[in-house]
Amino acid sequence: MSIQERIQHVEQRIAEACERSGRRREDINVIAVTKYVSVETTISAYKSGLLNLGENRWQDAEQKWKALSKEAGQTDEDSPSWHFIGSLQTNKAKDVIGKFSYIHSLDRLSLAEAMHKRASQLGITVPCFIQVNVSGEDSKHGMEPGDLMAFIEALQAYPALKPIGLMTMAPYESKPEETRVVFRALRELRDDVQMNSAHGSRIVHLSMGMSNDFDVAIEEGATWIRLGTILVGKEEE
Question: What is the DSSP letter of 144?
Answer without folding.
Answer: -
